[in-house]
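Hi L.,

You mentioned the student needs an example of a multi-chain input paired with its predicted structure. This one should do, with 680 residues in total across all chains.
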Amino acid sequence: MITLSIDAMGGDFGLDATVPAALDIIDRHPQIGLILVGDARRIEARLAAAGARRRRRLEVVNAEQVVGMDEAPATALRKKKNSSMRVAINLVKDGRADACVSSGNTGALLATARFVLKTIPGIDRPAICASLPRMDGHTYVLDLGANVDSPPAILLQFGLMGSLLINCLEGVANPSVGLLNIGVEDIKGNDTIKAAAQLFKRSSLNYVGYIEANDIYAGNTDLVVCDGFVGNVALKATEGAAQMIMGAIGEEFTRNAATRGAGLLAKPVLASIRRRLDHRRYNGASLLGLKGSVVKSHGAADATGFRYAVEVGIKEVNKNLVSNIENALTDLPDSDTLPA
Amino acid sequence: MITLSIDAMGGDFGLDATVPAALDIIDRHPQIGLILVGDARRIEARLAAAGARRRRRLEVVNAEQVVGMDEAPATALRKKKNSSMRVAINLVKDGRADACVSSGNTGALLATARFVLKTIPGIDRPAICASLPRMDGHTYVLDLGANVDSPPAILLQFGLMGSLLINCLEGVANPSVGLLNIGVEDIKGNDTIKAAAQLFKRSSLNYVGYIEANDIYAGNTDLVVCDGFVGNVALKATEGAAQMIMGAIGEEFTRNAATRGAGLLAKPVLASIRRRLDHRRYNGASLLGLKGSVVKSHGAADATGFRYAVEVGIKEVNKNLVSNIENALTDLPDSDTLPA
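Structure written out for the whole complex:
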């Protein structure tokens, strides 16, 4: 049986999201066990309310502290050794759980996971990989913010890890990989990206060349590789633009009686647009490069969103993602011998 | 009288956009003269069709070549010495025009403007600054792609030039300036951005601190400064996401008879959303740091869009943007003495 540890206290909704999601997962997956980590008294109360029958395969481990959503990673590491996040990750380290899922603050989760689980040899810090929606599916992007100033050899590691993740989550045998650049011609970009392109061309990856940021949402590249600074900007620019557009739509439909009437009729249509763009359906960012599976759920995820993040963790374990990554990186030339 | 040179052949629409825009500008601005540069025979034919009365303040200069939209900058520089783009920029160099506006290919325009007009001392290559729409106005961002790997001292130059541009185009006395980063805390970002923050704090700029990419569309920062690689990614991610969302809206409204009915009623509302997001209203990116005003219009700009770009050029000249930038940069400590 596969077991996942759940940071039950993390995120904006805490137990309101994690407990219903956990119950849902138990109902859907007869072979999965979950360990809910956090305030045991409160968790037990929630579970009791849900009925004893549903307690099978659900364990509770007490943790007295909670990492705040704005808490500095260093503080969380030093002063929250009994936080729900830390204890949930410890369970993976101790082999009691196969993967950990948390909606807690990203910086603290990265720092704690790196400190407790350690990174795979050759990896300095875990990369964050998530999928973004496009018209006909979704595109995976990494790194989304954990690594700034990534040299070419690190970008190649991102490409390998991301390809294996897509293989595991989507069943795609040989995902297409693009390097994010500011143009598609060979002369475009900075020295890092040009050197990375040479490494990608010589690698075993299904490398398709440079892609521009708009192609994240249009093209048919399965994976887009970039430095964490750039990836984070792309992600947040997208979120900001989407929010602005949906806000403008709301404003225009409530402008006067006629537009409000049109808005009423358009309601189901607008709802299905929102559903298509719903970040909950794409929830669950993978921290790649650790000696263990850790999935970061969006802080604002509700029970549905959190369940998607747990599903990501289940797939990673089922497909042995961590050992696949370890093997792939062992086959790589030592990053010290590659151009920095 | 202020005179602007117009690359009449540039962009996807060429004369179909530039000639009507020029006529419109002449009608709106009694003190402005324009020089249309390109295939004189074809331009004259268009002007004749518009009536002789409208020929006042409109000069035509022949140029036999056209720079292709995908042509390499180096090729354009070497082999297109009589292109409409090159001749239009030459007119600024020779003092016959006060500013130049082109929808031509960005790389060629940057290279040609830099070669012909030269940059202001201390500036290596011109930066591209444009405004992006937000709910309650727009935010200027630079650099949008001309400079990759910009060190802190160059980012400070961007801040100064962008502030002066906003002052000139919007009449804002002391525009607020943010540095694009992947978080707002001091520990976030790479070494370049941290060193830049120190320079910005000590500068005369109205520096408000780090801002994240989503705040480009939400916040109330007048100017966002970033490296050209990062800015270009933010811009294109936004374009891609907006296109995807508007595409999804179109798809949902044409799904079946009921949604098509709702779509008919929602049509005026959707049109006003598109109008709000219409990039034509924000057309006209300024190439900053040159010894002359050059405005880049979007390649896909129609006559309305192109007119907005010409208006940007007119304002730059009216407010002496180039000499204001020259003065501000002279007052800066030598960039060699600043941390790289």
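You could point out the following to them. Chain B touches chain A through 60 residues (CB under 8 Å). The radius of gyration of chain B is 21 Å.

Best wishes,
N.
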